[in-house]
Amino acid sequence: MNTHVSTAESAAASANLEVKGLTKRFGGLIAVKDMALNVHAGQILGLIGPNGSGKSTVMKLIMGIERPNAGSVRINGIEVAGWPSHKIARMGAGIVFQHSRPLHRQTVLENIKLALLPDKLTRLFADPHIDDHARAIAARVGLTQVLDRRPATLPFADLRKIEIAKAIARDPKVLLIDEPFAGLTATETEAFSDLICELRDDGRAILLVDHNVKSVARLVDRVLAMYVGERIAEGSAEEVMRDETVRRVYLGGSIETAARPETSFADRTTPFLEVDNVSVFYGKAQALEKVSIHVHAGEFVSVVGLNGAGKTTLFNAISGLLPYTGDIRRQGASLRGQTAATIARNGIVQCPEGRELFTDMTVRENLDLGGQHLPPDESAAQIAGLFELFPILNERQKQAAGTLSGGEQQMLTIARALMMKPKLLILDEPTLGLAPVVLEQISKALEKLRQTTDITVLLGEQNVTFALPHADRVYVLEHARIVWEGEPAKFAAGGGAAYL
Amino acid sequence: MGTLSTTRILLIALGAVILLSFLPLGVSGYVLGLLTIAYYFGVFAMAWDLLFGFAGEVNFGPTFLIGTGAYTAGILDNLYQPPIFVCVAAGALAAVLGGVVLALPALRVRGPYFGLTTLVAVLMLQNFIVVDASLTGGEIGLTVPDVITISDATNYWIALWFMAISGAILFALSRSPVGLILQASGQDAVQAGALGFNVTKHKLAAFIISAFFSGLAGAMLVFYLGSASVGTLVDITVGVQIIIAAVLGGRRTILGAVLGAIFLIAMSEALRPLGDLSNFVVFAMALVVVLLFPSGFFGLLTRSKEPS
Amino acid sequence: MLFWQILVDGFAISSLYALGAMGFALIFGVSGVLNLSHGALMVAAVVAAWAAGNDLHAGPYSGAAIGVAVGFAATLLTYFVVVRPLQQTRKIREEEKEIFILTATLLWGIMIQELIAYLYTNNAKTVAPIVNGVISIAGVRTPQNEIFTAVVCWLAIGVLWLLVNRTRAGKAVLAASMNPRGVTLLGIELSQVYIVVWAIYGVLVGIAGVLLGMFLGVSSYSVGPLTASAFSIVVLGGLGSVSGALIAAYIVGYLETITAYLISPAYRTIPALLLLVVVMYVSPRGLLGRR
Questions:
Q1: 20 to 30 Å CA-CA from C255: which of A19, A259, B174, C139?
Q2: How far is CA A138 from the centre of its chain?
Q3: pLDDT tens, A321-372?
Q4: pTM, to two decimals
Q5: Mapping DSSP to helix (H, G, I), strand (E, B) and coil, where does residue A284 land?
């Protein structure tokens, strides 16, 4: 099983995986538009894109988990677009999902044997050589020691190995891998990279999906970059990282900054918010690893990181929505033990990534709910002020929140949070999916806030053009760790390298 | 399911069944009668557990399948008096057909809608039986001219070994490769599909098997009791008792359902001196078990280390 | 003549169904719980009112008040003893909690049913109506009690609407039914919202129960059918939609009344069931469903 396919041969042979004109709509939203890619045997193609770019949807379309609206998917020359996933799997495709999903009541060996079973109702006794076959596969991925244990007792990396074992069990010619290194340590990432290279050398066509070019650069033969459902660049890893469009879209262009030095803030010794050595686990995966940041009263701090880096986890820990180890302090006093609602009422208010608006209620009602801790006249005054900040909300007062455009909804989310007169406003990816014109408006509103009030802001963004201009200080969060801290002016030189 | 292997469990169960076979030698006809009903009840509960463990959804109307089987057998006997085994076979077949008809809408929906579909099925069957009284005996019930036998001991043995064989088949199924595929289909349909399994086909199969055993047991019960009625075989309360038996015994264990069934019937008897309060106490105990010991008797017995 | 009779009778019974079903929908929409002990709670309210009249010789007003109070208390008990512990336990996987709560509320309902049967037998009971006598509407002799029932139901529905749409607490409840996470982020404790919702539900159940007792009477056997009827109405209207439940209740109520008058009382529940089957095949989300 070790035939190395030379590049000349693979170029001549037809691709194992051919995708053309692939399109998927969810209601009015176009998730994937006219996608085309080819992966030949013995090749790894990296599909790169930020959150919302559509890369996971492309994988699901190829595997038959979602039905495409248009387009063609050929596996080993056979058209499979629109087939149910079990038929595509039997055609010779395998998928490693981003989140491990083993059967919890079965042992590792049984989980792998499942992948080897035929799709028949009549088998009451397992084929004897399935057992040997399963053990061979387990040996290949490095699971021999834990064959008789149950998934709940295993470390995270082993769970990922089970997923790979299941996917390669029936020797697929096409292998789809979703975010292979998320949650792994550096050593484990190396081991996995080697395994994936071996699988490639077997002559398979591998499609690797990730949001970070750097982590897959040494592994892939070619990279295809996506943004908002469309392909924006293709080539070698270096070529794509240098590509103009990619850099603009992922990194932003040249940026003006307006930072105030850290020493200018009054609470030097005890910052308003201190996050101290905080770690968060989702099951086995480490979402935050000993993260420490601080924010002074009146400061504007941006946390920059691609999605999956841990920004939302960090903010949810601060807001009291997640369990964590370590400490989070507000003005010196620990927040541990307070309910999420209490933390919000006391002035740390979050605008989450999902906005969490009350979609069937009007704009006005949403704002009223934000102000329901205030006496009615104060609440009305607050709303008046916010209508000045976001005039479009005044126009759309009586409209249901669900009918607003994306940008208007984001403004409403921010306005609703401001109704609570927060001391610290947390903004999680406010620019996600918004058009540049709308970003301008929100940017201006933030600027006005920053100048006219002493509000403290903690912003999490992957869009650097938005994150840097207002910030006094910047952190870079990557793969659950803080990897850089400094002034926004120094970001391009220092932090930017860590970022792309 | 704990650390006992399939063969060991089957051997222990076989031993228990053989022991139980000796009961008629020393025990009164009344107790034998109770146990007979408990054994049929156990089959109902096992069939339910198969569906729940694999479709992964709560079927609130196991009595739809049971009632269909029972009444078909009973009505057939009343009308044409064919040999008993023909009636019983017809009952099982009718239940299978009913299972297929139920599966079609039920499998297309998830969550509370699945439960509701099964509930509606029971209500419709109940209504049909009550309304069509000339054929079905309506609310009063149906009597059949034949019974299997009058001997308590024989009935007991038939029920015991019927339960044992059904249990062995269902249990072996749950532990077989097919059972593994069914479990995957119920637990994670997307993953099962991505691994190459036709989930709909397998869930439909689970429905049919569950329907077959439910209908078969229901039909046999009719020829033990000599009668069938809405209150004993179709009513939602009966369905609830079946679910409780399976949950008490331990979900997804198949054999645990039998323990649950025997417990429920034994408890009802033991509490008989309390009069009408006995039912209350039984259900209260069941509630306590659900709240405090979600993994049921089987879970307690095998001390499985995973969360339930 | 017949037309008016159907119109009036149907209106009364539909209003009654509506009150109970709206409470059921509210609980599901906000708390995510399908309370299968719904029927038992209503019957408990009725029997309490009856017992107050029978044993304590209370007048119709105080008897009704006691009935509503008992319904309210039983509902809150359901939340604190059965639902909340299960929602908060760590012993059960999240995905399985819904099933356990369903089973537990079902058990709880049957327990209440058996307790009632034990304490007061399973004979039918009616509660002395507050309003007696008969008046003529368009030539139809209608018990004033029916009109009273419809009026009280709509008063309660009106108060509910005002509560939810005009008070701060009510709006918080409405918001929680749309987005629980959003409510927490605005500094409102969800645990308090849940208690408020169950309290509202308790009052609705108590009133609906007592009115039912005055109108038709119940027995411990009514528990199952009452729960099933509320469940069906709520699914028809769309799970989680309180206004959908209102509309569906009228559809079901009138279907039943028309069937009872024009075909036979024995068949009254069948058309509604058939409609439910059709709706589930064609549009499982119901008429106005959100979830």
A1: C139
A2: 30
A3: 989 999 999 998 999 989 999 999 999 999 998 888 998 889 999 999 988 8
A4: 0.79
A5: coil
